[in-house]
Write a structure and sequence with these properties.
alpha+beta, eleven-stranded antiparallel sheet
């Protein structure tokens, strides 16, 4: 669980052209269209809330583990996800710290400081030459569907190959808002997060993003 959420917080992905027939120039144009659309969406929407379904598969699991929950997000620095059964799990990230709380009768919270790592990663993806940086480290492709854009990022460099096999992102049309995120880790765990947004730019109380700090 910890590895999955560290990957989601720290790694931004752009993603596998399934038909493989798109000319390189068209693929580059589509990727830029998506990239610019995401940047505009980040400026337009400051907060969001909705529901999330995680489907986790692994060779160690007899069948997929499906978790249902609700989430809140504020910009790129705060989010909270709370899963109900089979075992309640609450994940909160706020600026510097990630808290993962499990259990009911005697809940335990793991406190992880990852703020510096997250900021370095966000800076890497937000510079003017960010697409060029991505191409140095990842095999990137994108495709357009009727109601969504799908993208895949597969690591090219050893730095990223240590942690992930690939990440696939689906963004809805026309607003470039996240519909699903799939993270395939080198640990053998694959997690797909399907997201339903209920409201945007709504007030969210500070208590939602409260984290324990050492």
């Amino acid at each position: 669980m910890r590895a999955t959420w560290l990957g989601i917080v720290a790694v931004l992905a752009v993603p596998v052209c399934l038909d493989g027939q798109r000319p390189a120039g068209a693929d580059d144009a589509l990727l830029k269209l998506i990239w610019d659309g995401v940047q505009e969406a980040q400026k337009k929407y400051s907060t969001g809330r909705g529901t999330i379904t995680e489907t986790r598969t692994s060779a160690l699991l007899a069948r997929p583990l499906v978790l249902h929950g609700k989430f809140f997000a504020a910009g790129l620095t705060k989010f909270s996800v709370e899963y109900s059964g089979p075992e309640p799990i609450r994940v909160v990230f706020n600026q510097d710290y990630l808290n993962v709380t499990t259990g009911t009768e005697r809940p335990t919270t793991e406190v992880i400081r990852i703020g510096d790592h997250v900021r370095r990663t966000q800076a890497y993806f937000s510079r003017d030459n960010s697409l060029a940086n991505l191409r140095q480290n990842f095999v990137i492709s994108a495709r357009e569907e009727k109601t969504a854009y799908e993208m895949k990022l597969a690591p090219r460099s050893a730095r990223f190959k240590k942690r992930i096999n690939y990440v696939i992102v689906r963004l809805g049309k026309p607003g470039f808002l996240l519909r699903s995120l799939e993270v395939d880790g080198t640990s053998g765990v694959n997690s797909r997060f399907d997201i339903q947004l209920d409201a945007l730019n709504v007030p969210i109380g500070d208590n939602v993003f409260k984290v324990y700090r050492p």
